Amino acid sequence: MASPLDDNPSNNPLINPPALPQGAPALDAIKTEHFLPALKEAIAVAKGEIEEIKKNPAAPTFNNTIEAIEFSGHALSRVAAVFSTISGANSNDAIRDMEAEFEVECVKFSNDMMMDAALFTRVKAIHDARATLQLTPEQKMLLEKTYKDFVRSGALLNDADKQQLRDIKEKLSELGTKFENNTVNATKAYKKVIDDEKDLAGVPERARNSYKQAAEEEGLTGKWLIKLSPPPIDIAEYCENRALREEIFRARSGIAYKGQYDNSPVVLEIVKLRQRAAELLGYANHAAFVLDERMAKTPEAVMEFLEKNAKAYRPAAEKFLQQIKDFALQTDGLADLKPWDMALYWRKLQEKTFALDMEELRPYFDLEKVLEGVRIHAEKLFNINLTETSGKYPVYHPDVKVYEVHDKKTGEMIGLFYADYYARPGAKRNGAWESTLRTRGIDGEENKFAFVTNTCNFDKPTKDQPTLLSLDEVRTVFHEFGHGLHDLLAQGNYRSQNGTNVKWDFVELPSQLQENWAKEKEVLDTFAVHYKTGQKLSPELIQKINDMDNFGAGYLGLRQTFMALLDMKWHATDPSKIKSVEELEDGVIAEIWLFPREAGTTSTSFGHIFAGGYAAGYYSYKWAEVLDADVFEEFRSKGLYDRGTAERLRDTIYSRGGTMDPMELYVAMMGREPDPAALFRREGLLPDKKKDNKAPKPPRP
Fold it and tell me: Measuring CA to CA, how many Å separate 579 from each of 133, 141, 424, 584?
């Protein structure tokens, strides 16, 4: 039965938003039944706005067509952003049931607009006359982007091909939702009950306490419960029970592989439909279609980049793996190292090599203190203030905190930051991510600032201790806040090219760059305090952290290269020649990786490329590492918080978003194009650059 809310828009906070400070969304008042009525209302409003543009009797101009399109659909964007945030971070069965319908309705509207011949005629007329128009660089970029978006959405196709492309996009939307829901449900379904604590030998007490609390919450007194969210990394790294390590490894590797929530057929159908869509638009494959609008430009350029990476990483990775094997044999007589052994012996060898117990570090990384450190760091680097609020802005879950962000120099408020860091199995999808509830840009007469979210999946505090992070998790916090800064510091007029709306192989630079500060003593001194003793992390431990920074760098680099190559193979291979998920993945493993596939497949839970925006773009992480290593060398030489360098970074990379070509922004920041060797220097695979040597102008990465 339909809810009464369906017929009473005034009761729907997404249709009739209450007056809240800064126009913040009423996240606490939004219910599941509000979403579809609000979506239909917002689409109707957006359609009316598009009709006004089409029927405008005046000749097409930049203002009455290009800007008018850009400024249309704000109500729809608001509803979609709230839905995306809640469905990702605080979902339920009812929301998951409506996701496909919600997403398809959005895709239908987009198809209707982007394939509208009359609307495109107006856009094309302005694009054809672009050389005669007096436009700012930002306006020129918007015009070019708008025209390309229409063309890449099928505006030049005949009616039959438009309909086929429309059907494909709607189906892909359904499949992306199905992929994500299968992943969430499969993750939620796995539970391992431990009856005897001896089975957890070697696992740190803090992790055992978390497993015990998880069991108690489900009425399993005197037991321990292991779930797949948050990921049970401690089992992999510490558990001496090899059988349990193997079981958890297979469970994690087998997420959405076979069984009730099998994503194998979903993956195969997705790649077939993406291939057909690319062909309709005149491209050889989906990779060629995607990369035509990226810094890399072509699949060949990406494959060359990955080949160079593999060549650099493989010898170091093989040497490292042999070290691990030798160590496992010497210490425990383990002659047949398996993937579920790797993390355990990696940690043990690292601790022996650097005389450091990794558990020594966790007590210094209380999440609340880390967040305080991130705040201090961001304020020093970008001259901003973050102030936590309480009760002023509604949230969708009590765990969420909201911060106001101000520019120190002007006093101007530049954004809201929503922080949501704790795992909610079955309600929150896996991983860590940044998104926006509102992107900066002109809305009406005002350029309104962004509402930014960071979402992670850390263990909640127990009654005995706070949330204690690993060093990698600390870097994750810095990484996601880097994405957030990209959106918070945006200054452009147009939402479609503000903040993280940049070419996808540039989007990871602002996030990965922030990770570099997380291991610097000056930064660690602001938050790395033992939660019991109050003692700061000692200079000796900080030095060890930096000494071991490149431990296994070749292996990790090769792993990322494998993931990127797997992505490219999925999207540059003729789908008619792919017999199964296993066959394609095993082929990539044989080509580049060091272990055969022992359990499920990576692909069936590879949400980045099958339910996210990284299809034919996963290489971006390594591509952007070249850029971030190069930029951070500038800070290492000038000073971690050198005012001039930091202001130049803010004014170019962070504030300009997609208003300029990314290479132009990079050159504006660095005075030159990227140095491809910077990453290999940072990873210890090449010697440090001599301070008195001037590097020649390098090729693009």
Answer: 52, 42, 36, 8
Per-residue pLDDT tens digits for 387-439: 999 999 999 999 999 999 999 999 999 999 999 999 998 899 989 999 999 99
HSE value, Cβ hemisphere, 13 Å, CA-based, for 276: 17
Question: Are 380 and 473 part of one and the same domain?
Answer: yes
Name the E strands within 206-249: 224-227
Number of Cβ within 10 Å of residue 19's Cβ equals 6
At 15-40, the pLDDT tens digits run 999 999 999 999 999 999 999 999 99
Distance from C-alpha of 393 to C-alpha of 452, rounded to nearest angstrom = 13
- Spatial strand order in the sheet of 450-458: 384-389, 401-407, 413-422, 450-458, 433-438
Statement to judge: residues 341 and 461 lie in one domain:
no
User: What's the confidence (pLDDT) of residue 694?
Assistant: 40
DSSP string covering 22-71: GG---TTT--GGGHHHHHHHHHHHHHHHHHHHHT--SPP-IIIIIIHHHH
CATH number, domain containing residue 268 = 1.10.1370.10
Q: Which residue has the tokens 């989007």?
A: 507
Number of domains, the chain: 4
Same-domain status, 529 and 573: no
Range of the domain at 237: 190-253
CA distances 490 to 296, 407, 410, 578, 656, Å, are 24, 12, 15, 43, 6
Query: φ, ψ for residue 363 (rounded to 5)?
Result: -60, -15
CA 284, CA 281: separation in Å to the nearest integer? 9
The answer on 556 and 543 residing in a single domain is no
Q: What is the pLDDT of residues 206-219, one digit of tens each?
A: 999 999 999 999 99
Tokens representing 464 are 């005995």
CA distance 651 to 104: 38
- Could you tell me which of 8, 10, 7, 11 has the C-alpha nearest to residue 31? 11
Per-residue pLDDT tens over the stretch 155-193: 999 999 999 999 999 999 999 999 999 999 999 999 999
Helix, strand, coil content of the chain in percent (nearest 5):
60, 10, 35
Catalytic positions, please?
Answer: 480
Rounded Cα gap, residues 247 and 230, in angstroms: 16
The sign of the torsion formed by the CA atoms of 59, 61, 67, 70 equals positive
Could you tell me the CA-to-CA distances from 373 to 517, 524, 546, 669 in Å, in that order? 11, 8, 18, 26
Do 85 and 437 meet the contact criterion of CB atoms below 8 Å apart? yes
Mean pLDDT, range 114-130, rounded to an integer: 98
Residue that is last in its domain, among 600, 618, 636: 618
CA distance 628 to 508: 9
The answer to whether the peptide bond before residue 230 is cis (omega within 30 degrees of 0) is yes
Region 311-319: mean pLDDT is 97
Confidence of residue 373 (pLDDT cuts 50, 70, 90): very high
Provide φ and ψ at 264, rounded to 5°.
-55, -50
Identify whether residues 526 and 558 lie together within a single domain.
no
pTM, two decimal places: 0.92
Could you tell me whether strands 413-422 and 450-458 are parallel, antiparallel, or unpaired per DSSP bridges?
parallel
- What are the start-end ranges of the H helices in 333-423? 339-354, 367-382
CA angle 315, 317, 323 (to 5 degrees): 105
The pLDDT value recorded for residue 690 is 53
Per residue, the 3-state secondary structure of 529-541, as one string, reads: ECCCCCCECCHHH
Other CB atoms within 10 A of residue 205 CB:
12
Q: Is the dihedral of CA 483, 484, 489, 493 positive or negative?
A: positive
